[in-house]
């Protein structure tokens, strides 16, 4: 069993597409019209194009519990998901120059360094850099 799709709720798929491709560097993989202005819109990492797809899910527009949950996470400052990066300080600098707003600047937390930004689509996203190898 493996993860092939991860869903993230967005209020505006087109705005999310611009942010996730233009600023974060993801690549559009699938874009299938579903009617009523909705799309099956997935992205992949430029570095891992055969990896899991990120679905830009318009659920908050159609399913009130999704909107309530998304709003609660945002208000509490809790990330919806996380993306791993090689060098969090470099990513922070790059994204800040592109106008991305961070609520948490790169901060060491044991064996990782994290930062949290607003994706402009209703979500906090956490970046993580592993500082040393960990085993469980």
UniProtKB/TrEMBL annotation:
This is VOC family protein. Residues 2-130 form the VOC domain. Gene3D superfamilies: 2,3-Dihydroxybiphenyl 1,2-Dioxygenase, domain 1. PANTHER family: GLYOXALASE/BLEOMYCIN RESISTANCE PROTEIN/DIOXYGENASE, GLYOXALASE_BLEOMYCIN RESISTANCE PROTEIN_DIOXYGENASE. InterPro entries: Glyas_Bleomycin-R_OHBP_Dase (IPR029068), Glyas_Fos-R_dOase_dom (IPR004360), VOC_core (IPR037523).
């Amino acid at each position: 069993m493996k993860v092939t799709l991860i869903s993230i709720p967005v209020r505006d798929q087109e705005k999310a597409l611009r942010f996730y491709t233009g600023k974060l560097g993801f690549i559009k993989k699938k874009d299938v019209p579903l009617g009523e202005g909705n799309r099956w819109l997935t992205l992949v990492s430029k570095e891992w194009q055969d990896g899991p797809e990120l679905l830009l899910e318009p659920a908050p527009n159609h399913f009130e519990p999704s909107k309530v949950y998304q709003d609660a996470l945002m208000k509490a400052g809790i990330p919806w998901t996380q993306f791993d990066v090689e060098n969090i300080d470099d990513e922070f600098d790059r994204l800040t120059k592109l106008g991305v707003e961070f609520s948490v600047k790169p901060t060491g937390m044991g064996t990782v360094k994290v930062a949290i930004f607003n994706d402009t689509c209703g979500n906090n996203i956490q970046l993580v850099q592993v500082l040393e190898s960990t085993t469980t």
